[in-house]
Design a protein that fits this description.
- Strands 1, 2, 3, 4, 5, 6, 7, 8, 9 and 10 form a ten-stranded mixed β-sheet that branches.
- The protein is α+β, with helices and mostly antiparallel strands.
- The protein folds into two domains: 95 residues, 2-Layer Sandwich (Alpha-Beta Plaits); 138 residues, Pseudouridine synthase I, catalytic domain, C-terminal subdomain (Alpha-Beta Plaits), CATH 3.30.70.
- The two termini are 24 Å apart.
Length: 253
Amino acid sequence: MSDVEKLKCVISYDGTNFSGFQIQPGKRTIQGKIEQALAKIHKGEPIRIQSSGRTDTGVHAEGQVIHFISPIQMPSWSWQRALNTLLPADIHVRGVKKVEDSFHARYDAKEKEYRYLIDQVPEKNVFKRNYVYHFPYKLDIELMKQACTYFVGTHDFTTFSSAKATIRGSKVRTLYEVSCERRGNTIEFILRGDGFLYHMVRIIVGVILAIGQGKIPPGEVKNLLDKKDRRLAGKTVPAQGLYLYDVAYGDDD
């Protein structure tokens, strides 16, 4: 029997009161709180976690995935209970699974799904302000759906990546689904793909909203992709409407 085990955790969190996922000195972060909990379980020994990817300040997660290695051997349900006992109320471990030594939460991810929520009521609901983007302006949902189709497929998404992005190399990504649906006063965007660049979802949503307002035609998306210039794509919508909804790894999920 191995002296250590690798564990995969699916976690959800309310990103409102966190300075993003990645650990930062003097800041409250998701990684920091999880590693604090793990240190308590391991009697002060530091345990480093790896995630499927970072989320920004104010961004939420329904299905973030992390992994870590531990010399402690106990049932998966015991890990889940122990972590949830020690974690703050705005982080919850949904499940724990023992995985092969070769598993990596980031590099083995096959697909990610993000969702973004728009609230279209005339007056802002203060109780929803941290979970939706209040956007009371008139939108043509059919134009927005047309715009979504231009993003599906494999493209260079330089125009839809933050100018502050530190990533080097290719900005080509494949999106399997880009959709938007109106449900009452809420518009939900779903974006699924093999990977996402920094602020990519929020920039795409911002462009689709501009199309819904009639500021630019749906076909302009193709030109924006071709130009590879972030300055052409308008503003980045706020973080609070964004959710990392799911991370998929293959047939055994």
